[in-house]
Amino acid sequence: MVNSYYSTMEDNTREFYNFVIVGAGPAGLTAAITAARLGLKALIIEKGEIAGPRPRGEGMGHYPIVDEILGKGYLPSIGLKSNGGRVWHSPGDIQKFTTFKEYDHYFFEWREFIDRFVEVANEEKVKISYKCEVIEPIDEAGFTIGVKYKDETGRVKNVFGQAVLDCSGYFGVIGSKYGINYNDMNCPIIKCLISRANLNLKETPDLQFYFIGNGDLEYSPKFPQSVAYVFPLENQRAEVGLMLRMSQVPQMRSVEVPTKSEILTVWDKLKTSYPGFSTFFKGAQIDYEELTYLPNAKMASDFVPNPGTILIGDAAGFINPFGSSGLYYSMEMASFWVKLIYEELNSINREEDVKPDFIKDLWTDEKIGQYKLKFENTDAFKEVNHMYNLIGAFEYKIFNRLRTSEKINKKWEYITSLLSQA
After folding, report:
1. CA dihedral for 106, 193, 68, 28, sign (positive or negative)
2. Maximum CA pair distance of the chain?
3. pLDDT in tens, 119-164
4. Model-level pTM?
5. Where are the beta strands (DSSP E) in 318-373?
6. Which of 19, 55, 196, 374 is the most buried (most CB within 10 A)?
């Protein structure tokens, strides 16, 4: 039904797809691969020269959707299997507490992972346009009907579709145009890849998280509460970094929002002197270092900010807000919305000689409400929503009410009871 439906509405004067996808990360590629396997046409518009251009380490659970998209057993073939441990260090590395996850979790190199997505997308004949920058959505009568973008030659083009999926990351290109406030959602994060790291995987196989309370750093007393982290990789490599936790900052008089230069200055000092954390840098080589953002303060206010537009993954703040990978949730979200639109297309019956008003039929207020309700009933949404509620209470109690190193250490037993739920 979908293919015959599509054939009745194609306008030869317009480049048309069922899905116009902004961003060739795991969310965008999952959406396109899923669409292609359902017989739908998808175009991915990617700003970079390659998919997922920034190098980094990564980790995620071995969920069924990973096998569904990338092939059965692919993740274990490239990853270092974790024992599921997370070690939480109190301020000053005075106390420790370890929690365990019961599902299989793997750490891996980003390039190998993302290249597999592209390989599968190519096998499914997905069109990916690289070095193309989306300028704005194309709006008609209140509906998003496509996007305007600049191709690699600098020429401005229009492309049209039944749904525009914004998978462009923490400052969603389309979401921003429709009023999503990413400044409220995003937290600064430093991501750093090191080789020759001072770690032994047999002795330190777990993720490491180091709490830094407000007022703990003599050289930056008004620096926001933060968490430094270490994700071990194979061959003495690791991703290390610093997550600034900003959700409580507007309510705290003792905190000042730091500039980029201040964040980098604090980061340099943490690498050389913060108890426990600086140990991993002894003799290590920094291969990549970047100050970027993670949308883990809160989710977007609306995943469908305009009829015809859907925010996916980081562009929706749909991640694990505790700082772990959002890959699984972005893949689940992308797959869900593509399959939902596919089902809706199949439910639309039209006479073959009538050109349908394809956007209006798919994106009525009533149907948008139904779509959202179906999504909110998924396990993935319930998990993410629960984690946001949990971390909101967690950060209020720890970073706002306790705040300082002395108080956090004094209440460490209470804090570990909260961490057990994370």
Report:
1. positive
2. 74
3. 999 999 999 999 999 999 999 999 999 999 999 999 999 999 999 9
4. 0.91
5. none
6. 19
